[in-house]
Specification:
InterPro entries: MmRce1-like (IPR042150), Rce1/LyrA-like_dom (IPR003675). With about 270 residues, the chain is mainly α. It is built from twelve helices and two strands, in the order αααααβααααααβα. The chain has one domain. α7 packs across α11 and α10 crosses α11.
Length: about 270
């Protein structure tokens, strides 16, 4: 039921962009994309209403991590980690891309411009969190229902759902301009599985949705702004971005470190 509502709503949003001219990067599409980020919340709330879960809103807020029973310092620590995670991974991905010849860093690095971009992105970060909450509430409703299948199966399925969820816009060139639609959806789904596992770790380790909301916002706003200020790509986005293959490499490495250090053991909602 959750998937049917969520995917039906996101495809309706994708159709609205297509009928409006198909310029998914244009200003006219921006309000539709912002509203579309709340389709997982719509799916969660309608499913909770029909299943009776909404009769106990306090329990629903606890299960989705909006309310956390964990100590505040623990939640705050993971929230800070979420803020730093995506930007650090994005810089590492640019390093991998540079080593492969896909990106050239400015020499010297423009630290003044970098500080200005970071400051401007942090100013609009509260709005970014409002938007990413729309997605994360839905995924935080879904993930606990998948965990009985096993932690890694749950994270994998959730990541695939997240990646395919973006298909109406990815097919229109949103993430990888110029790439064939089917390959673009596959590429973004791989990225979503990897980043989704990291966000899932933040969500479950903190017992709160907020570190994942912040990390998602940092990926959308801060990480995406770094390539333009740090250097110049010499190839397509797939070869330079966090959602491209360099990002896959660094996210897989980050997951490997977390696994080896035991960070995924005994994770619970």
């Amino acid at each position: 039921m959750f998937l049917a509502i969520t995917f039906g709503a996101i495809w309706a949003a994708g159709a609205a962009v297509w009928l409006g001219g198909g310029d998914v990067q244009g200003d006219a599409a921006a309000p539709i994309l912002m509203l579309a980020m709340y389709t997982p919340t719509l799916g969660a709330l309608l499913t909770a209403l029909m299943s009776g879960e909404l009769r106990r809103p306090g329990d629903l807020l606890r299960r989705t991590g909006v309310r956390s029973s964990r100590p505040f310092p623990r939640v705050a620590g993971y929230t800070v980690a979420g803020l730093l995670l995506a930007p650090l991974l994005a810089v590492a991905a640019l390093g991998v891309s540079s080593a492969a010849g896909g990106f050239v860093f400015h020499d010297p690095l423009p630290y003044g411009s970098l500080a200005g971009v970071l400051a401007s992105q942090l100013l609009i970060f509260p709005l970014g969190m409002v938007l990413t909450f729309g997605e994360e509430f839905g995924w935080s409703y879904l993930l606990p229902k998948l965990l009985p299948l096993g932690l890694w199966r749950g994270l994998l399925i959730s990541g695939v759902v997240w990646g395919v969820f973006h298909a109406p816009f990815t097919l229109q060139g949103y993430h990888y301009p110029g790439m064939p639609g089917g390959l673009a959806v596959l590429a973004f789904t791989v990225a979503s599985v990897l980043l989704g596992a990291l966000l899932g770790w933040l969500r479950l380790a903190a017992g709160s949705i907020w570190p994942a909301v912040v990390a998602h916002g940092a990926a959308n706003l801060i990480a995406s702004a770094l390539p333009a200020v740090l250097g110049k790509p010499t190839s397509a986005a797939f070869h330079t971005s966090l959602s491209g293959w360099p990002g896959w490499v660094v996210m897989a490495a980050a997951l490997a470190v977390l696994i080896v250090t035991g960070q995924f053991r005994k994770l619970t909602v």
